[in-house]
Design brief:
The complex is a heterodimer. Chain A has strands at about 5, 10-15, 20-25, 35-40, 45-50, 55-60, 60-65, 70-75, 85-90, 105-110. In chain A, strands 1-3-8-7-6 form a 5-stranded antiparallel beta sheet, with no helix packed on it. A 5-stranded mixed beta sheet of chain A has the order 2-10-9-4-5, with no helix packed on it. Chain A is mostly beta strands. Chain A is globular and about 40 Å long. By secondary structure, chain B is an all-beta fold. Chain B has no helices and 10 strands. In chain B, β4 and β5 (about 45-50) form a beta hairpin. Chain B is globular and about 45 Å long. The chains are: A mainly beta, B mainly beta. The interface of A and B includes residues 96 and 101 of A.
Chain lengths: ~110, ~120
């Protein structure tokens, strides 16, 4: 079992709809969870982090965390073509290092 | 302020030659990471420096790879006797001290694209 599981996609979503990106993790000790966005040919950039169960909203982005189910998700409302990218889920493991998922490729269709 | 910088942005080298990749982290950041990303693949952890502690070298793929961090700031990743399978983008990231920000957050540089011919 991989430490961090993400559907590789591509996930295709119509413009204006909600994109839902999911991630499961195996380390029950993980306390903080990060979402990064990586455009093709660019380096990852931090979008959001969450460390409490429930929802955390930041503009069009909402991160959801359920530690009991070892599940974290990212919702993007009113999806735009500029949201097309690969989204990386990264729980924080021991030693403050991040454990990286392989990413989900998101395509927003105009 | 200035972000993480890496140089060179592109490097083409012949098989068997040595290369050095440089990373300059965000000022004040105590942790520094090196990753490798092959085309269409995820991030592969290479090495992690935290302050003055011994680095975590557990991700280095072979003894041809080494890294150092001088003065707790700039880091150099060295690949000796390069092979074609070393071709990838090498990414550097840094993190602020644990008492600042959110422990674990990493900020990436633009990467160095290495091509071994």
């Amino acid at each position: 079992q991989k430490e961090v599981e993400q559907n590789s996609g591509p996930l295709s979503v119509p413009e204006g709809a909600i994109a839902s990106l999911n991630c499961t993790y195996s380390d029950r000790g993980s306390q903080s969870f990060f979402w990064y966005r990586q455009y093709s040919g660019k380096s990852p950039e931090l979008i959001m982090f969450i460390y409490s169960n429930g929802d955390k909203e930041d503009g069009r982005f909402t991160a959801q965390l359920n530690k009991a189910s070892q599940y974290v998700s990212l919702l993007i409302r009113d999806s735009q073509p500029s949201d097309s990218a690969t989204y990386l889920c990264a729980p924080r493991g021991i030693g403050y290092q991040l454990i990286w998922g392989a990413g989900t490729k998101l395509i927003i269709k105009p | 302020g200035a972000g993480v910088s890496q140089s060179p942005s592109n490097k083409v080298t012949e098989k068997g030659k040595d290369v050095e990749l440089r990373c300059d982290p965000i000022s004040g950041h105590t942790a520094l990471y090196w990753y490798r990303q092959s085309l269409g693949q995820g991030l592969e952890f290479l090495i992690y420096f935290q302050g003055n502690s011994a680095p975590d070298k557990s991700g280095l793929p072979s003894d041809r790879f080494s890294a150092e961090r001088t003065g707790g700031s700039v880091s150099t990743l060295t690949i000796q006797r390069t092979q074609q399978e070393d071709s990838a983008v090498y990414l550097c990231a840094s993190s602020p001290p644990r008492f600042l920000g959110v422990p674990g957050e990493q900020y990436f540089g633009p990467g160095t694209r290495l091509t071994v011919t």
